[in-house]
Amino acid sequence: MSDASRLEFVIAxxxxxxxxxxxxxxxxxxxxxxxTLVESDEIGTVGVGEATIPQIHNLxxxxxxxxxxxxxxxxxxxxxxxxxxxxxxxxxxYIHSFGSVGRGVGLIxxxxxxxxxxxxxxxxxxxxxxxxxxxxxxxRFALGGASAAAPELAYAYHLDATLFAQMLRRYAEARGxxxxxxxxxxxxRDPASGDIAALNLDGGRRVEGGLFVDCTGxxxxxxxxxxxxxxxxWTHWLPCDTxxxxxxxxxxxxxxYTQSIxxxxxxxxxxxxxxxxxxxxxxxxxxMSQDNAADLFxxxxxxxxxxxxxxxxxxxxxxxxxxxxxxxxxxxAAGFMEPLESTSIHLVQSGISRLLTLLPRDLGNLxxxxxxxxxxxxxxxxxxxxxxxLHYVANERDGxxxxxxxxxxxxxxxxxxxxxxxRESGAFVREEDELFLDDSWGQVMLGQGVIPQGxxxxxxxxxxxxxxxxxxxLSRAYRTRAATLPGHGDFVSRMAAAAVENRA
Length: 504
Fold this sequence. Notes:
Elements: E1 7-12, H1 15-29, E2 33-39, H2 56-63, H3 67-73, E3 77-79, E4 81-85, E5 93-97, H4 110-120, H5 131-137, E6 156-158, H6 161-174, E7 178-181, E8 184-189, E9 196-201, E10 205-208, E11 211-214, H7 221-226, E12 231-233, E13 242-248, E14 258-263, E15 266-272, E16 277-283, H8 290-298, E17 310-313, E18 317-319, E19 323-324, E20 327-329, E21 335-336, H9 344-358, H10 367-393, H11 401-408, H12 413-425, H13 438-447, H14 464-482, H15 488-503
Helix pairs in contact: 1-6, 1-9, 3-15, 4-14, 9-10
């Protein structure tokens, strides 16, 4: 293809967002595009998103990245879900796991059978019927091995975001992406159309392009500052505004799940990697000072701190448009969703995938694609927002001012409708390809104490005497199967060693 007909992409900013975009564009557009990424080594990245959800497999498979090499290059571990400790009330705990919960019978969903069994007094904890939860509780993991008795474990990863960005950079540059080191000093716009024409860099350099991808982090240098796209503030629903982050030496347990532990005015994360543990304390500054938050944080980390706590200020929300003129924002430049459900990298993936799906051949005619992109992105972000708000509003931590505030705040109508339907009969209706599925909503609703008043009449078609044995057979099969799995640490060590052997 001649240079004159190639699509010209300029990515502003590196980090995970920038290099995911560069690698994906290079992989799927190939010689149809020229791709330039501008970043400065002087500007650090936030790098708090070290936990993922299973959709990351789409990225790795799409790019053709070998899982063993990925595990070794990013010091990754496996993730079966997220434990929420103390979120309903102090001393309580549940795991929001990946994969399915239980097994339905014909048209009868499993949760409806469990609800009826609960009323009959023959049902155990909801997590007993998730193979992922059963394996996670015992720190066990393995790939494959699905059988009639138990499904294959559904999983994602914990990873070092900095190492992941470096791996993607090597991948992208090997496929023709040009990296330009430099600090952006100005964004040059076309006086007639208002489109971005070029980025001006230090040293008097200039980088022109046809479509610009803003990955400049919270500053949103292109979309927010240059194009003046306003920010939609979600602080009313998600009031936490500060995070403290620091790495520690690995703890005594090598858990195959993320921990999210409720604290006085927010929550704390623990993310176990091969070489260290990632830690953070997310809190609301209106209810706790940074000094008190740091003291509480340091008193509750596992392992020796490897750095001082690093403060990160944020406002949860998003840019009103994610694509304006000829600029698409990804990552923190598009908005911030606190990392409660590990959606940061996914939102970068879905954004670049959506761009590729809608991208027209003629970059001079972007209006239709831009409108559709913004509509789909807004729906995705709002549905994830609702899922996060659910964790906060459905709490029973009476007497904690922060949690009292969250429990009594007005919530989005879309979430209120979901909660009302679930309270009636445990039903859930997925809307508009939203990210989280029925099993995710069900686990969090029940874990947070949103207990249905009844169940579907479909479940009444199963004789009551059969419910208990059916539930027992499932939980017993999962326990038996999980007991045969290796420990998570042993499995990761073997995978990493296999990567070395494969490379030799």
